[in-house]
Design goal:
The chain is mainly alpha-helical. The protein contains 14 helices and no strands. The chain starts with a helix and ends with a helix.
Amino acid sequence: MSGVQLFLKVTRARTLPVMAAPVIIGSVLAWQQGAPFQWALFVLTLLGALAAHLGANLINDVFDFDAGADQAAQAIMTQGNTVPTGSQFLLNGQLTMRAYRGLAITCFTVALLCGIVLSLFRPWALAFGVIGFLLAFFYVAPPIRLAYIGRGLGELDILISFGMLPLVGSFYVQSGTVTLIALLASVPIGLYTMAVLYFHHFLHWRADKSVGKITPVVALGEQGARIVGAVLLLLVAATVLLDVYLKVFPWYAIIAALTIIPVLFALRQATGDLKHYFRLMVSNLNGDLLTALLLLLALLVRGFTHI
């Protein structure tokens, strides 16, 4: 395995589209609202957000490993109802904690440099980055550890730091302002991203429970968490419809609300078997990205038809 391949696997770079989507949508929304599209600022924003995302993935693995969550999942994996999904390279000893921390510092340094440069043009740009870093860091880091306190606090963190903040922040970088339209547009994107993490908990909730990580699945039980998951998906569709009604997105963006249908079917079929929960995860991630693509296309169509 090459160094690049190892870096991509360790940082779980396959999750980058989840962060790229709100940044691109926020930037295009600003252009569609009349701001000139500034490519240099867009590239810096996207690079900084993606670097921060990778750093957050690494930090999450470091503190979950420190807490013993991944070791607990590995220990009971033979029961067939739990799978370790975090620091695989720490579990097999291929990389050290020092290496993980070094990579995380490197990623966050890149994000910080992007924020500093952006702040020369947009004074509050760095503030968006700092808030995002603090939310990502204290998601698992002591003394706050929002994911371990749980009961929805971790999900609220993800809603803001991986959905609303990057979309509104990228809108600000392009337009120089923050508007209600940007905030409204960020809600369905943030909720869908939050759902990605929410359904991920089903893969290892027993291990989480053993180390005192009170995720919604631990707090509610599988059946209760499935019901809340369905409500969360319906909220995604409802906020898309609300945004269409309020003309944040054009009327034809209504099709994006339909992406929750296959996810709801996958949720209904997920009955405790890991393979069903893996299918639910894939279906939800695909729905998230498809929704982002449909909303982006809707903004582009509306923008070009009004030129």
